[in-house]
Write a structure and sequence with these properties.
The structure holds two protein chains of two kinds. By secondary structure, chain A is of the alpha/beta class. Chain A has four domains: about 20-175, Rossmann fold (3-Layer(aba) Sandwich); about 180-240, Helicase, Ruva Protein, domain 3 (Orthogonal Bundle), CATH 1.10.8; about 245-350; about 360-440, no CATH class. Chain A has 23 helices and nine strands. The relative contact order of chain A is 0.07. Chain B is of the alpha/beta class. Chain B folds into three domains: about 5-155, Rossmann fold, CATH 3.40.50.300; about 160-225, Orthogonal Bundle (Helicase, Ruva Protein, domain 3); about 230-320, Zinc Finger, Delta Prime, domain 3 (Up-down Bundle), CATH 1.20.272. Chain B is built from 15 helices and seven strands. Classes of the chains: A alpha/beta, B alpha/beta.
Chain lengths: ~450, ~325
């Protein structure tokens, strides 16, 4: 059996972790308080949906801080006596074993105690569970080591008398589920690590299906890739995934076909997709359906408003505004005066996403060229791209002496040369090299 | 010719600076006194802001001016992080010269977010003993009031046609290129007071032909033309919205123009569109609203698409 990719590609350091930057910064701050001496809160509660990186971050934090790790899986040990025995001992003494396993940490170093699945820990008043919350509160009060509690459900952890006490003792950090783009980014990295050719459309479908759960997405990718080096859209259909791809297609169709706001809204609510992705689908296809300019303008006005709400969500982290963005997207249904009798033959996947993917390289080349020229011209990359590059391109293309000189001093590579000139890059590079060796003019 | 002329012919000292007489006089008095306040240079592109900053540093610090002059581009690194780290790091170290301070030249300072500007203000105050700032921007109104009040503000005007023409003549002569009066006039007209643009056009023309006449200038500027905002707007007005949208995407992605750049160009283009004035006013109003939404943090592509839809509607109204 192959190593699960979830483990193989799990980030070891915080720098490698994708997403939740603000939350990670808060956690680092907390860790540094520990290093400086007495932290304001001795414990941290990380809450978030499955597969958003809570455990990974906790472990990576320990790695980055040079701390040892003691992981307690709360589903196994849930009663007061066990928790106290292990955690208090671990917190108060320098070395100890967990389940007979000896944990080696640097001598006298700090140890991070991680309570995973902490909501289970407090969940019930069933037998054996009694006193779980109480035990943890006492542990935190007594501990001399940092403690992180990890769970899915904030209210589950902080409810009840002892839960309230816990709330006052621990700092709460919330994790967001990853966006589709973030998940695709990770999947791409894995594909290139494994030498797998995969359409980015496929990756978007996997990401959609995961609902922001990176672990699920990676597992799906590994399952799909079993014994293959190329993954195509058809492979998804073979696995019975056609539905997922079709869901957003169907919703797009409904919003554009119907003139009933409630019908459009219902189809989007059932969809369980983030509004930014839905917006892209509608935006892509609306001009194909809404051929009357008045309808198009009205539709775009709603999409524009939806987008403004999404911008505010990003800026203020005010996720409650998502609902309004979704309302505005659904509103596109009533932007038309009447139903259209003819429809486009088919609706398309958002071309922007494919375009961005295809143009990644060209954008990188363009930006590095802009930065290099910015140094020469004493100005910014943007200013170069907008106001200088069009001219420089012509000069470079027509003046051989200058071409060779700047190829040399800017260390232009083949791609950069091809971006500004149709001439043969290897010839230019050859001459530039020759010139550099002679250490003077051509 | 081996170098880009904009750099080759960038004035080395304040006396060589073209135009901006009053500003140059004031800057010279700083050199004489070997001190200066924080400065704010405001004005359009190609009017000598960067040139004046570098020339000032050369004259203040002499041969080793580079060690005391730090150039930073706010639009490349616009976050508050840069102010807190890079700028602060540099500002706090002692000046490696006998003048007693060094200069940070912060180009395109109007690209800094208000938060970053607020942080910058504190840095300016705390380290003003060892470090003076020269902020450069297109519009001083985008710089927060507390910073403006701590700077001597200099407004750079577009250069006079005569000044640009003389400079172009000088460069052409120096490079051994023949250029006709008509060609000079054409370049000056296209450049509209922007010296950098004028010199770039001159060099472009010279790269194509040793003798430069009006035809060569237009040929050269034609080569430099790319998918432009005007043709996108016209496509939208003609009713082909999808094609206009595709062209716009290309401008955003492949050429790397920012949404704000594009919307400014749209704003300029509207006046000359073949549509009736009342429609123009409506479109201008929409453009302003869309720019506001972009500035507020909305997605520039979706907002610009929404704006294009208005142009399509305007085109439809014209047909009736």
């Amino acid at each position: 059996m192959e190593v699960p990719w979830v483990e193989k590609y799990r980030p070891r350091t915080l720098k490698e972790v994708i997403g939740n930057n603000t939350a990670i910064a808060q956690i680092l701050e907390w860790a540094e308080e520990w290093e400086r001496g007495k932290p304001k809160y001795k414990a941290l509660i990380i809450v978030g949906k499955p597969g958003c990186g809570k455990t990974t971050v906790a472990r990576a934090l320990a790695h980055d801080m040079g701390w040892g790790v003691i992981e307690l899986n709360a589903s196994d040990i849930r009663n007061e006596k066990n928790i106290k025995e292990i955690a208090l001992r671990g917190a108060l003494y320098q070395t100890f074993t967990d389940d007979g396993e000896y944990i080696v940490t640097k001598k006298g170093g700090r140890k991070l105690i991680i309570f995973d699945e902490a909501d289970n820990l407090y969940e019930g008043v069933k037998d054996g569970d009694r006193g779980g919350k109480k035990a943890i509160v006492e542990t935190i009060k007594a501990t001399k080591q940092p403690i992180i509690l990890i769970g899915n459900d904030y209210y589950g952890i902080t409810s009840g008398v002892w839960g309230k006490a816990l709330k006052s003792l621990a700092k709460v950090v919330k994790f967001r589920s990853l966006t589709k783009q973030q998940i695709v980014k990770v999947l791409k990295r894995i594909c290139s690590g494994e030498g797998i050719m995969c359409d980015s459309q496929v990756l978007y479908v996997i990401a959609s299906k995961s609902g922001g759960d990176l672990r699920a997405a990676i597992n799906d990718l590994q399952a799909l890739a079993q014994g293959k080096k190329t993954i195509r859209m058809e492979d998804l259909d073979a696995l019975g995934w056609r539905d997922i791809r079709n869901q957003i297609y169907q919703s797009t169709l409904i919003v554009l076909h119907t003139t009933s706001f409630s019908e459009a809204k219902r189809s989007l609510i059932n969809l369980d997709e983030a509004p930014d992705f839905v917006l892209m689908w509608i935006e892509e296809n609306m001009p194909l359906e809404y051929t009357k300019p008045q309808d198009l303008v009205r539709g775009y006005e709603y999409l524009s408003r939806a987008d403004v709400y999404l911008g505010r969500v990003m800026r203020r982290q005010q996720y409650s505004l998502w609902a309004y963005a979704m309302d505005m997207v659904a509103g596109v249904s009533v932007a038309k005066d009447e139903k259209y009798k003819t429809h486009p033959r088919k609706y398309n996947f958002p071309s922007w996403l494919l375009y961005m993917n295809r143009s990644k390289k060209i954008r990188d080349v363009r930006d590095s060229l802009g930065t290099k020229l910015g140094k020469i011209y004493h100005t910014s990359r943007n200013e170069i791209l907008e106001n200088v590059l069009p001219y420089f391109r012509v000069i470079y293309d027509n003046d051989e002496e200058l071409r060779i000189n700047y190829t040399s001093i800017l260390h232009l590579d083949e791609d950069e040369i091809s971006y500004i000139s149709d001439r043969n890059p290897s010839e230019i590079l050859e001459k530039a090299k020759k010139k550099r060796n002679e250490g003077g003019s051509v | 010719m081996e170098d880009v002329w904009v750099e080759k012919y960038r004035p080395k000292n304040l006396d060589e600076v073209i135009g901006q007489k009053e500003i140059v006089e004031r800057l010279k008095s700083y050199v004489k006194a070997k001190t200066m306040p924080h400065l704010l240079f405001a004005g359009p592109a190609g009017t000598g802001k960067t040139t004046c900053a570098i020339a000032l540093a050369r004259e203040l610090f002499g041969e080793n001016w580079r060690a005391s002059f730090h150039e930073l581009n706010a639009s490349d690194e616009r976050g508050i992080g840069v102010v807190r780290t890079k700028i602060k790091e540099y500002a706090r170290t002692a000046a490696p010269n006998d003048v007693g301070f060094k200069i940070i030249f912060l180009d395109e300072a109007d690209a800094l977010t208000p938060d970053a500007q607020a942080a910058l203000r504190r840095t300016m105050e705390m380290y003003s003993k060892t470090c003076r700032f020269i902020l450069s921007c297109n519009y001083s109104s985008k710089i927060i009031e507390p910073i403006q009040s701590r700077c001597a503000v200099f407004r750079f005007a577009p250069l006079r046609a005569e000044d640009i023409k003389n400079r172009l003549k000088y460069i052409a002569e120096n490079e051994g290129k023949k250029i006709t009066e008509d060609a000079l006039d054409a370049i000056v007209y296209i450049a509209a007071g922007d010296m950098r643009k004028a010199i770039n056009i001159l060099q472009m023309s010279a790269a194509i032909s040793d003798t430069i006449d009006e035809g060569i200038v237009y040929k050269a500027t034609g080569l430099a033309k790319r998918e432009d905002v005007e043709s996108i707007v016209k496509k939208a007005i003609s009713g082909d919205f999808v094609a206009a949208r595709n062209k716009l995407n290309k401008l955003l992605v492949e050429y790397g123009l920012s949404g704000e750049d594009i919307i400014k160009q749209i704003h300029r283009v509207i006046f000359d569109l073949p549509i009736e004035d009342r429609l123009k006013v409506e479109l201008l109003d929409r453009t302003g609203e869309i720019e506001f939404r972009i500035v507020e943090g909305a997605n520039e592509r979706i907002q610009l698409d929404a704006l294009l839809a208005y142009f399509t509607l305007a085109g439809e109204k014209m047909k009736k």
